[in-house]
Design a protein that fits this description.
- The chain contains 5 helices and no strands.
- The chain has a single domain, classed as Cytochrome Bc1 Complex, Chain D, domain 2, CATH 1.10.760.
- It has about 130 residues and is mostly helical.
Length: about 130
Amino acid sequence: MKLFFRFAQTATGALLLALAAPVAADPAKADGTVDAAAIYLRVCSACHGEKGDANSLARGALAKRPRNFTAPEARLRLNREYMIAIVRDGRPHTPMTGRASRLSQEEIEAVVDYIRERFMSAAPDRAPTPGSR
């Protein structure tokens, strides 16, 4: 029981640190483009994991498991516009908070494109059905 409690404390602490970590004012590469990989690592990987598979330390501390971008279901349900809206506005009743106050629209689009290319390469671009995740 003590081990579980320590794990929960560690995971919660890691999650809070990740959420509080500042995002650089200009996360740009030398050529002026947005460094979406760096944004993903700083902002998204604490919950979604470095490999996009939702295997992170924070997963045990979250009320709802984060999205696994590598799962076939994700490829079927998430189109680009829907993902942009989720990153921008968040998802009610989940730990996914909106990032519009921390990321520009260009950065949000870049990180969504990064996720789709890196973890969801076969993702179709169709809209989710009402009531779907």
